[in-house]
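Our consortium's second objective concerns turning raw sequence data into structural hypotheses that experimental partners can test. To show how far this objective has progressed, the report includes one record in full. It was chosen at random from the queue rather than selected for favorable results. The single chain below, 99 residues long, was entered without modification.
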Amino acid sequence: MLRTISTALLLLLLLSGTALARSAVSGIVVGPDGPLAGVEIHALESDLSTHSGPDGRFTLELPTSGPLTLRFSLQGYKTLTRSMDEAATDVIVSLRPVR
């Protein structure tokens, strides 16, 4: 009986961990003069967004893993849309000024 309960609890924990699996995209946004603060990073598939910090770094927690499209935008710079196969770390994004 104890073994059956233990097995059931283990299975439940494994399944709940999979159902709650999260992933993240993180990196830095730069311009011609270095890191860019205040860039909006928007995940189009999940409608979640964040902003880059003073050092240009960002982290966006996503509800699931898989392919995603991120839009990077900041006034005075060309908006960039970037597709990724899955969540990643150490992404480097370069924005160009609008001329």
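The partners drew two points from this record. The two ends are 72 Å apart (CA to CA). The chain has a mean pLDDT of 82. Both points have been shared with the crystallography group to help prioritize constructs.
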